Amino acid sequence: MDNSVLPAIDIDRLQVSYGSQQVLHGVSLSVAPGEFIAILGSSGCGKTTLLRTVAGFQKASGGAIRLFGRDVVDVPPEKRGMAMMFQSYALWPHMTVLGNVGYGLRLRGVSKDEIRSRVAAILKMLNLSGLEDRKVTNLSGGQRQRVALGRALAIEPEILLLDEPLSNLDAKVRIQLRSEIKALQARLGFTAIHVTHDREEAMTMADRIVVMDAGRIAQMGSPKEVYDQPSSPFVASFMGAENTIELDIRATGQEREIWTRDGRSVPFSGPVPTGAVTAYFRDDVASLDAPDARIEGSIVLPGRITQRTYPGGHYRYVVAIDDRHFTVTDDRYHDVDRPVGLRLPVASLHLFPSDYAKGGIHA
Amino acid sequence: MARPSFFGLLLIAPALAMIGVLFLYPLGFSLSSAVTGPGGELSFAAFQKAYELYSTDILFTLFIVIVSTLLTALCSIAIAGILTLSETPWLVAILRSLYRWPLFIPFIVAAQCMRTFLAKNGLMNNSLVALGLMEPIQATSFLDWRGIIITFVWKQVPFVTLMLAGAMASIDRATIEAGRNLGASRLRVLIELVLPQVAQTLLVGLVLSFVTMLSVLSVPMMVAGSQPTMLTVDMAFRINSYGDYATANALGVISYVIAGTVAWIYLRHNVKREAQI
């Protein structure tokens, strides 16, 4: 069979249950060879279960998993031929770096000398040269996870599974390893599935993001697509649009307008049906203006600044409008307790019919 | 603490006194009486006599205890390995509920059960004959060294398994999964990845089992015939039949030395490990 045509991983209506509790409700996902997929979701959404089922540590109760066309649902994990990285590093504490990285090669009957030279090449690639005979318990967290990456890559896998491998590392090492993994993936061309709850990590590493919610895929697409055009209130708030405001879309003759609850309106043209809507927006699309400003294409809501913080680069404000609070980032300095206008560009709002929103917010 | 306080000493005094009266004094007494001649002088006559009469039994005891310890290790590793790595839930459930029972059965009861189980016309042979696996004429009694080993292993496996399965359950599960993920069969995972991580616990369990088996009187006395037999039986015999405390004490000292050697191996290994970490 020609590997270039078949998907590297083809997950077809996969169902998984823990006892009577169903965790995955028919997940379908196709991953092309060489693609880097990030599965994003809050804890308990089934993302780790999905990865573990692909690896073979969790039994599927229905559906199929095909690796380059080969159905592996009933194949034990050791015969699936993929490599995995774990959150806890999962290095073997009784072995040296050489023992850990070379173990997969040893299992494949590679001679001792060749293992040594191949491990040396991998350690060089990971900037760990000369650490062959070090005990893994004497390494730092970042070095350990690099050894785990080396151990996974030593067998030259076609598929690499990453189970939140970076979440135990401190911020600086995490960002460094992120780009190292991404660079290695581009160079070696393996297919990767990366499970994470870190949005930024998923956005920066993946070619395609899969957002999961309660055992189902909520949305998949390129990072930009998922970020800019969330398909549901859940995805919108998970991607950071955590401010919500109730609006109305009314039709007057041919024209449609979007109305705030206190009676301001702006012309609106969009695919959202007429009726009550909930708008989701990120704090960086909103900005601060004069309370009575009128700006083309934007809603301006009068409010008052109740809090100001400086996280670096810009200010972050909390604006109170009636009894609601919104977070907004703005470059300019404003005094606390000052009346302001919260400016919302209509084109940047994620609008969903209000009855949709009621069942859908988890984050 | 810079200086032990008087009050602290007072607190541990009862415990110290118990150790002194119940352990150190009898130990010292038996040691000294083993090297004391009939006239009160220093003498190794008791050791010489013990060696002349019981050198075969010393070797027999070593053989029984070492073989039993090794078999116990094998069985415990197998059971704990299945408990940890098996993917067949009913097998794990059955094994988990069954394997601990022998822990609650005293050695003397176990020995009694084995007498009826392992005899020439015992339950084991009868079952094998009934199953057609053996001709009645082939039936032999296992009530000899094999019986002792079977009883010891049956009695000690649950103890070591309990410790070992606990240790295996507490290692990072991901280290097992990482091995299987790279292509290691479950047997290789057990031997190459799991066992080295719990070796310390296995060693402790085996040392404790070794010393326990060395000191059991009822099993060799009830299960096997009189010759050759284990040192515990010889000691009891010297005392009960002859009132020969000197030789019995000499045999006791030999037992201490055997147990002490094993404890020393364990301690040395332990110190080496700690020095590494």
TrEMBL record, chain A:
MF term (GO), any: ATP binding
SMART domains given in the database record: AAA
InterPro entries: AAA+_ATPase, ABC_SmlMolc_Importer, ABC_transporter-like_ATP-bd, ABC_transporter-like_CS, Mo/tungstate-bd_C_term_dom, P-loop_NTPase, Transp-assoc_OB_typ2
ABC transporter domain mapped to chain residues: 6-239
Keywords: ATP-binding, Nucleotide-binding, Transport
Positions of transmembrane segments: none
Xref: Gene3D superfamilies: P-loop containing nucleotide triphosphate hydrolases (3.40.50.300)
Record-stated family: Belongs to the ABC transporter superfamily.
Protein name: ABC transporter ATP-binding protein
Organism: Microvirga puerhi
Automatic annotation (TrEMBL), chain B:
Main location, first listed in the record: membrane
A Pfam family of this chain: BPD_transp_1
Database matches in InterPro entries: MetI-like, MetI-like_sf
Spans through the membrane: 58-86, 98-118, 148-171, 202-225, 245-267
Keywords, ordered alphabetically: Cell membrane, Membrane, Transmembrane, Transmembrane helix, Transport
SUPFAM superfamilies found in the cross-reference section: MetI-like
Membrane topology annotation: Multi-pass membrane protein
Source domain of life: Bacteria
Annotated localization: Cell membrane
Stretches assigned to the ABC transmembrane type-1 domain: 58-266
Signal peptide positions (record): none
Family that this chain belongs to: Belongs to the binding-protein-dependent transport system permease family. CysTW subfamily.
Protein name: ABC transporter permease subunit
